[in-house]
Amino acid sequence: MIRLNDICFAYDDVPVIRHFNAQIDDGAFVVIKGDNGCGKSTLLNIINGLEFAEIGTYEFNGTIIDKKTMKNESTAKAFHRQMGYVFQNTEAQLFCSTVFDELAFAPRQMMLAEQEIEKRVGDIASLVDISNLLEQATIHLSMGEKKKVAIASVLTMNPQVLVLDEPMNFLDKSSRQWITDFLRQMHSIGKTIIIVSHSDDFDALATQIIEM
């Protein structure tokens, strides 16, 4: 599914990723580890098509993902429908006034019918156990609730791949347990999970651990 071949990336001529190689199969549960500043978050941006390798190639389901291919609107939309990215900074990901609008945002961008959007929002809210929050303002939620909303907002497009950058940051014990149990459930139904994590919270679930 995902092939990263000889990936190199730099910010302002300062190398961040050097000659990185990895293959992630469909249905894998991958944990990416490494010291601060080793390029873990940058790698996730490349996997999600938000940054592009300066050297090397990134292939997703047989398609090379680079600046040229992502300029094609249909290719870009098809790619982003398959990738659900939950940022490390959850508050930066939430920008709509209510939880309902947050979950509805991506389907609306894809021009789905409003009836289909309402159904998707309702189904995902039930799955993530936030149905009681749909009319709430996102700014008033707890950190654990915001993390659930961020996860739900990417699930409304039913992506094949869930990518999470340090999902345990700033969460209490019960929220951390919920994240672990939920990702185990998502993996059990065939989702590919890719996580950057400092901790060993997900090591027991991992089918692949990548050290950077």
Q: Can you lay out the helices and strands and say which pair or pack?
A:
Elements: E1 2-11, E2 14-24, E3 29-33, H1 40-47, E4 55-60, E5 63-64, H2 67-70, H3 73-82, E6 83-86, H4 90-93, H5 99-109, H6 114-127, H7 143-155, E7 161-165, H8 173-188, E8 192-196, E9 208-211
Parallel strand pairs: 3-8, 3-9, 6-7, 7-8
Antiparallel strand pairs: 1-2, 1-4, 4-5
Please give a structural write-up.
The chain is α/β, with parallel strands linked by helices and 212 residues long. It contains eight helices and nine strands. The chain has a five-stranded parallel beta sheet with strand order 6-7-8-3-9, with helices on both faces. Helix 8 links the parallel strand 7 and strand 8. Helix 5 crosses helix 6 and helix 6 crosses helix 7.
Q: Give the radius of gyration.
A: 17 Å
List the uncertain runs: none
Please state the oligomeric state of the protein chains shown.
single chain
Into which percentage range does the β-strand content fall?
15-25%
Distance between the termini: 20 Å
Tally of individual helices:
8
Overall average residue pLDDT:
95
Strand order of the largest sheet: 6-7-8-3-9
Order of helices and strands: EEEHEEHHEHHHHEHEE
Structural class: alpha/beta
Helix percent reads: 25-40%
Count of strand segments? 9
* Main sheet specs: 5 strands, parallel
What's this entry about, in short?
By secondary structure, the protein is of the alpha/beta class. Helix content is 38%, strand content 25%.
Keywords summarizing the entry:
212 residues, four-stranded antiparallel β-sheet, single chain, alpha/beta, 9 strands, five-stranded parallel β-sheet
